[in-house]
Amino acid sequence: MLRVGLTGGLGSGKSTVAGMFAELGAAVISADQLGRQLMQPGEPVYAAIVNTFGKGVVRGDGSLDRKKLAELAFQHNQADALNHIVHPAVVAAEEEWMLGVFAKEPTRVAMVESALIFEVEKWGTAPGWVQRFDKLILVTVPDEVKIARFVARMGTHVAAQMDARARLAMQIPDREKVGRCDYVIDNTGSLEATSALVEKTYQELVRFSSSTRE
């Protein structure tokens, strides 16, 4: 079993890289995707969020207002409370997913895409999670590129830039993560260049996985 963590800050393009790994044959799950599922009405995480932040974060259709939650987290210093609700549940779901992958395909490379692999350790919201990965991959681009990509995706208004900078300020800088990762994928250049790095990395992961089973 090879457990791989794929991380990268906001706007780094880690989701694009994750898609490339999936196309090559890796089993990939997104922490954001799991988080959205766990925040649906009827889920324990949903109930805990409403109990903590009040009905003001609930839309008319009963779903959570993720924009309002983001504002509370990043602009009103309530990220810690939200993270302590969401992160443990997401990490538990990631672990369950990986066990399911290996039960069906023991030789598969299972990859978790998450922006906060190192942050959950620092914040104490999921102690020991980093150590459960066999290999770690960092997707990196300069911070100004991250901000520009985020703003292009969310809107060119000043609020988007402020939101991007607030989110980045909460994340551990790439320079501190590089030394803790087994692979670094520079996503500053063309898609073709990134794809070549991804393919090379994936082949190394496959070889490593094969050698550990011999």
Number of helices: 10
- Proportion of β residues? 5-15%
Mean pLDDT: 90
Strand order of the largest sheet: 2-3-1-4-5
Q: What is the ordering of alpha helices and beta strands?
A: EHEHHHHEHEHHHEH
Please provide the count of β strands. Answer: 5
Helix-and-strand structural type: alpha/beta
Main beta-sheet strand count, sense and barrel state: 5 strands, parallel
Radius of gyration: 18 Å
Low-confidence stretches: none
Assign a percent range to the helix content. Answer: 55-70%
Euclidean distance between termini CA atoms: 12 Å
Mass-distribution shape = globular
Which short descriptors sum up this protein?
214 residues; alpha/beta
Blueprint (SSEs and pairs):
Elements: E1 2-7, H1 14-24, E2 27-30, H2 31-38, H3 44-53, H4 66-75, H5 79-104, E3 109-113, H6 119-123, E4 135-140, H7 143-154, H8 158-170, H9 174-177, E5 183-186, H10 191-213
Parallel strand pairs: 1-3, 1-4, 2-3, 4-5
